[in-house]
Amino acid sequence: MSGSGGPTALMKEALNANAQAVLEAVRSSHNHPxxxxxxxxxxxxxxxxxxxxxxxxxxSLAQQGLIRELGRSDEACRYDGHIERHDHAICTTxxxxxxxxxxxxxxxxxxxxxxxxAGIELHSHEVRLYGQCAACRQKxxxxxxxxxxxxxxPGAAEAE
Amino acid sequence: MSGSGGPTALMKEALNANAQAVLEAVRSSHNHPxxxxxxxxxxxxxxxxxxxxxxxxxxSLAQQGLIRELGRSDEACRYDGHIERHDHAICTTxxxxxxxxxxxxxxxxxxxxxxxxAGIELHSHEVRLYGQCAACRQKxxxxxxxxxxxxxxPGAAEAE
DNA sequence: CCTAATAATGATAATCATTATCAATATGCT
DNA sequence: AGCATATTGATAATGATTATCATTATTAGG
Lengths: 160, 160
Description:
Two copies of one chain form a homodimer. By secondary structure, chain A is an alpha+beta fold. Among the domains of chain A are: 17-63, Winged helix-like DNA-binding domain superfamily/Winged helix DNA-binding domain (Arc Repressor Mutant, subunit A), CATH 1.10.10.10; 88-150, Ferric-uptake regulator, C-terminal dimerisarion domain (Dna Ligase, domain 1), CATH 3.30.1490. Chain A is built from five helices and five strands; from the N terminus they run H-H-H-E-E-E-E-H-E-H. Chain A has helices at 17-28, 35-45, 51-63, 108-118, 134-150, and strands at 68-70, 78-80, 88-91, 97-99, 121-132. In chain A, strands 4-3-5 form a three-stranded mixed beta sheet. In chain A, a hairpin with a 5-residue loop joins strand 3 (88-91) and strand 4. The longest helix of chain A is centred in the C-terminal third of the chain and has 17 residues, at 134-150. The first copy, chain A, is flat, with a radius of gyration of 21 Å. The relative contact order of chain A is 0.09. At the A-B interface, helix 1, helix 2, strand 1, strand 2 and strand 3 of A face helix 1, helix 2, strand 1, strand 2 and strand 3 of B. Strand 5 (121-132) of chain A pairs antiparallel with strand 5 of chain B, so a sheet runs across the interface. Chain B binds a DNA duplex through helix 3.
């Protein structure tokens, strides 16, 4: 327990060479690469890296907000019997997919312009809200309280 | 060639017992069930049905617009280096995922209300446009022309 | 510098959703 | 009935992702 203010495992901000290579690969690609495509790209720079590390790093980067993941597939495809157009809320913690009971209205004009800009023939659209659902918020809250009882304020003396 | 106006394989509108059971299962579920959950539910009514049929039927129903599928996972998860909020266009034919170069503006007010209605703590949002991308439109067009040359206007005498 | 403790890594196996295959069955027609 | 054709479902194959675990790198202490 040295007094050097040693960051043991909590300070993850600094990216190592592998993580930097992955981040670079994602940033320099202008389509939306899959994990395996990123793996192939990174391989050229860091030939010894394995898929597992790429996945680990991608998750870590996404969690730090340095990249974004589109279309989680750790969940299976889901089906919806409500075919009238409607929007969704997606819990970023548990992945729950909720119907929005109210429409997020947006202008036909803006939609048309956006579709034209992308070059697609617009058939439908959807608004997705991302955030933490009520259940996950409660659970996180409970865990925070419990953690406080076990290890009360580690590093409370830090500037904050 | 009987003159009974016989629908050989093109008239798929009428759903058979399996398809009806699947549709019923999707409609009666108020969460967003996965294919396997639907399979389990349908099994209770039609015990001899297999997973392959459930998947086939789900795709067919979705194609007919009777149900909707959320979060295709035939494609892998994709990553995006642009972390500033932006919207996407998704090709319903080839699954391509395109960044929208323009924002589809919508009111903060409406977003907040929708998030509250769903009970989530809003972190971010995204508009998704669904349609056919330029490449797929051209390909479909070409195929249509080719089909015309092979079988010119079958049933052109129909009322239309 | 050498060694022990610990964390990070990568090869490989396991898992899970989905799709393909193909023999068996059902359906329609004469 | 008897044949042609379409549908079905059991099972294997595929592909993405995750878990496991031995190996390797890193650090601290002597």
